[in-house]
Every structure is written in structure tokens, then in C-alpha cells.
User: What shape does this take?
Amino acid sequence: MYTLGGELVAQMLANQGVKTLYTLCGGHIMGIYDGCLNNNISVIDFRHEQAAAHAADAYARLTRNIGVAAVTAGPGVTDAVTAVANAYQARSPMVLLGGAAPLKTKGMGALQEMPQTGMFRDFTKASFTITETSDIPEKMTEAFEAALSGRPGPVFIELPFDVLFNAIDAPALPARVAITPVEPEAGAIARMFELLRAAQKPVIIAGTQVYWDVAHDTLRELTEQTGIPVFTNGAGRGTLPMNHPNCFKSARGKALRESDVVLLIGTPLDFRLKYGIDGWNPDCKLIQVENDAAEINHNREADVAMVADARFVLEALIEGLHGIRYDDWLRQTREYEDKKNAELGKWTALDDQPINHFRLGAAINDFIDENMIVIGDGGDIVSACAKVIDVTRPGQWLDPGPLGCLGVGAPFAIAAQHLYPEQRVLIINGDGSFGFNGFEFDTAVRFNLPIVSIVGNDSGWGQIRNPQIQMVGKERAVASALAPTRYDRIVEAMGGYGEHIDDPSDLGGALERAFASGKPACIDVTIDPEGMVKTGASTPYIV
Assistant: This one.
């Protein structure tokens, strides 16, 4: 029995448990589509390759498995580059399948021929070409192992046209790739116990690795047993419910200034944590748990460092810290958190028109429940909303990650809604970010995926414009203003539901109506361009 290369690619995806392929059509990759139909893999076609690759990123995050996009050669591949870079920074194991000209004409100037694998080598786990159809099972297995092992991340596979359309004897497929968790080194565990048993003010910063290692229940057990305050970061948001009494947001700065031991789990010491230097107690001890050895001692020397599975480390701490509690420190942290939240409450209660960013976030927080996935895609609007929205379960919140890539909203939402049709999916968009991939509402309409976007519309790139005005004055603030476009009408024109809001008292009702419509929907909300400045929350753009 003969098998075509495209069929073999689809069989490998199905063998790994992949249920959906995201794509934009191209002649180079048509053979993969036929294979997907034969192997019960859904094919969702987007209007831009960047969006297709973003959707594969979201699928990977939500399933903790491989997410896959297929794009045609040349411009199809280059259009997906940004999404692959974003997945790399976010530690997401997506695989990009890129079409290529036939090997028999390589270097002769075929349509859309260009060097492709080299572009990805700096921001993927692997980037290579499959040159023999018979090598597809072995090479794709290697790709899956690379993507899922250690620090998860993307892989690029170039598939020439003739490799996909060649026929070979049907091979036996290898076993599904499963990664064995890494045990922590005993000596490092002992040193970690020593530091924490002597600590008076320890904190845990639970990052993306806590999510990938399915360590949320263990994290909760540890903090409830010991009273160690927990701050979440990246995909760690929701690994401890944000309404849990031991989970904090607003007190992080003060906690880092005073803490004597910081247990950092799967969180890079990047700008989000001020590189582990600015605002930190210079005398605090750092315990660093990572799945990426390259992150160990990056920007700050760790007192204890280990490359290990987060759940194993947390389980060891539950045993090793038995009977030890930090109640005074927990109480101090809670008092400061409550004080900061009371100040924030003044902003969330504003009924001004145009609507303040924090007032919008409060309305969203009142509306969401555990059956909703929330996607942040924007600058100031997402920053403000993240301060007031309480995520209560792992995987409930998605955002670009540390690359800060705008445009993930609709693609992430489409992937989430297709994966989980019983859940509601809400995008928090800025008006600028909506413009990147807002046309994917056409995709949502075509596939009957009733995602909802609420757009904070301040007619500008607010995160840039406000600091720009403060620095150079309004008359010299160029390249940061937008038109007051009605994005709800754009979605209506595509066949979705749209509504415009000026009054903050209408926000809850508008959300109800948008989801009740059963259509892809957009709520366009006029927000105050100076809202962040008025509340004192505007900060200079980080460079």
C-alpha cells in the first residue's frame, strides 16, 4: 500500500493527538489538507498566515501539546515569522509547516522560492528541511520531541512540494511523543530547604512552567500549608486562583523590596520582574527553578538553582516545610494588597464618560466566570484590565507573552472557541491591536465560532501616545493617533453582531447581548484617551 507524503504528515499529526490544522491555502501544501481530511483533523483557514500561526500557538498552550500551522512557501512563510517568534518567547510548542519549491528545481528560481530555514534558527527549538518522504515519521518525531522537551518552544519544518506528493510504501508510525518529567537534584533540594526554613519573608513567583508542568494543585497545597504569599506571572496566571487569600497582584513591588527569599518558578528575570535587580531587596536569596538551563543565573546569580519539573519541586517543599508557617508575613502582605486594592477601587468605580480603562476592566470582571476564556490583546487597556480581573483557573487567561506581540486576539480566540465550544471566549482588545487581525472575524463567521471582542477605543496607540505627549507635547506627538473607527460596524459587515457603548452602566448588558447573539461579536467602547494619566497609572514606555 502506498502513502503520499502529505498523508504521512497528517498521520503523524493525528498520532500526536493534534485535532486541528490552522492554515492559509497555497499550492505547495495542498497535499497536507487531503491527509487531514483522511485523518479526522479539522482544517481552519485564516485570512493571514500570521493569524494561522498565532492560532497554533494558542492551541499548544490550551492543550499542553503540539499546535500546528501550515503555510505556503515564500511570503506564506515570512508572514508567519512574527507568530513563531512570539511563541518562542512565550514557551509555546507550536510547529510551523512551511511549503517549499520542489527539490528537483531547487536554486533554479521556482515560484516563491527563497531560503527559509535560516530565518527561524535564532527563535525556534529546531529548523530544518525534510528531503525524503520516507523520513517524515522520524523527522516529525524529532520535531515534536524538540518542541515539548525542556523549555517548550516552536519548530519550523520545511516540506518541499515533491516530498509531499511522492508516494512510498506505508511505514509503521512511531509512538506518540511523551516527555519524562525531570527530577530535582537532591543537593539543590536540601539547600532550598535550608534557605526557606531560615526565612521570615519568603515569596513564590509562579510562572509559565507551573502551568506546563500541571503543578497548580501542588502550588495551592503548598501555600495553604505554609502561608507563603504567591504572585503569578505569564501563563502562571490562574494556577492559583486570583481570589485566593494567598494570591497577590498589587503588593508585588513591596514584597520584592522586603522579601528575604524569592522562589522563582519558570519565570525569566526580564522586564516584568525588573531583571531581578531594580526594586528587589539586594540581600534576598534567590531560588530559581527552571526547565531552561539558559535562564539560570540570567541577570541575577541564584543562591540555589535547579533544572527540574515544577510539580516535583513543589511536592518536595510540601514535605520539607511541614509544620512551618509564615503567618505574620502573609498578614503584612495582605494588608498592603488590600490597601492598594482600595485605591484601585476608586478608579474602577468611576462613572465618567468617556469610560475609564479600569471601569471597563471592573465590568468585565463582574461578568466573567470559570466558563470563560479571556484573551488580552492590547497595550494600556490590557494592562489596566489585568490589574482588576481575577483569573481563577489555569488556562483561563491568554496573552501574547513577553514579546508583547499585538494581534493575537482573534486568532487565539478562534482556536480556543473551536477547542472548547461549550465555553465562552472574550477578547479584550485595544483599537490599535484590533487592526492587526480584526479581519479574522471573517474566519470566525465562516466557522460559526461566536467569539466576542470588547474594544477599548481611545482613537490612538495609548500606551505610546500618552508618554509621547508627556515627553514632547501634543503638537509633536506624531504617528500615535488613530481615527474613531466603529469596529462594531466592521464586524457587523462581516456577518457578526456589533454594538457601540458610551455609558459605563451599559457594559454588562452589552456583554450579555453579544454572547446571547450566538454570533462572532464586537462591542466598541469609547474610552478616555487620558484615562490612564488621570488615574496616575500611565508609565513611560519600557525600552
